[in-house]
Amino acid sequence: MGVIDQSMLLLDLDGVVVFEAEPPLAGATELILLHENLDSALAGLGLPVVVLTHRTRREARRILQAAGLDAAPLAGVIAAEDLVIAGFRYAPKRMFKHGLRKDLALSVLEHSFGVDRSRIAFIDDRIDNLQDLLAAGLGLAIHAPSYLTMDRRFLMTFNISDALASIQSWDRSARQSTIVGLSPRPLATSLWCRTGVSTRPYRRHVFNVARRMGNFMRLVFLERLL
């Protein structure tokens, strides 16, 4: 990979690009697209985009395919397997203590792309992920609302244009210490949202099984130390 001497956008998948819906929101477990024409919106931003996910690489590729981003000019994909490798390479003790956190990706990005972490923006639906990355030196943290209404029949998400506007107005010269919260909006479901794809079969992938077992053993060992 070449060196990118500019800012970069990290993009989570679940809750940001897709939502894996279950009944009664959908007839069966299915990936629902959250944004129409996302590929062109990202291209218009003019920044390299890297997907950062806790999903396996196989799952990530399937989701990107369902979202129509498999042919998009993404700069890269950092999946769960890559985070494990980064943990062993850059912070084995921290990974053992805290688990597979997404801030492990920052060292990978700096070494692979030559972009400083203070010039990286990240859109994620989990506050804890964003807090970890901000504490590790991330430049801009954007929280994507992603939740079901009380009756579990409607999905709340966000406008991708609002997220991209936050990036375009981002002052790179000032360190960001707070998370930018996007306004929630109901997803108006229509045919373009439906993919007919579920990642449920991937949950028994050998990597996912090994990861769950490893995390269980890690927690048991830490509990005995306390």
Helix-residue proportion: 25-40%
| CATH secondary-structure class | Alpha Beta
CATH fold category name? Rossmann fold
The sequence of SSEs as H and E is EEEHEHEHHHEHEEEHEEH
Shape: globular
Q: Name the beta content range.
A: 15-25%
How many angstroms separate the termini?
43 Å
Question: Could you list some keywords that capture this structure?
Answer:
226 residues, alpha/beta, Rossmann fold, three-stranded antiparallel beta sheet, 8 helices, 16% strand
General description of the model:
It is a single chain. The protein has helices at residues 38-45, 57-66, 80-90, 92-98, 105-113, 127-135, 160-168, 206-225; strands spanning 8-11, 18-21, 30-33, 49-52, 76-78, 120-124, 140-143, 147-148, 155-157, 180-181, 185-186. It contains eight helices and eleven strands. It has a single domain, classed as HAD superfamily/HAD-like (Rossmann fold). Strand 4, helix 2 and strand 5 (76-78) form a beta-alpha-beta unit. The N and C termini lie far apart (43 Å). Helix 3 (80-90) packs across helix 4 (92-98). The chain is α/β, with parallel strands linked by helices.
Q: Could you give the topology of this structure?
A:
Blueprint: E1 8-11, E2 18-21, E3 30-33, H1 38-45, E4 49-52, H2 57-66, E5 76-78, H3 80-90, H4 92-98, H5 105-113, E6 120-124, H6 127-135, E7 140-143, E8 147-148, E9 155-157, H7 160-168, E10 180-181, E11 185-186, H8 206-225
Parallel strand pairs: 1-4, 1-6, 4-5, 6-7, 7-10
Antiparallel strand pairs: 2-3, 8-9, 9-11
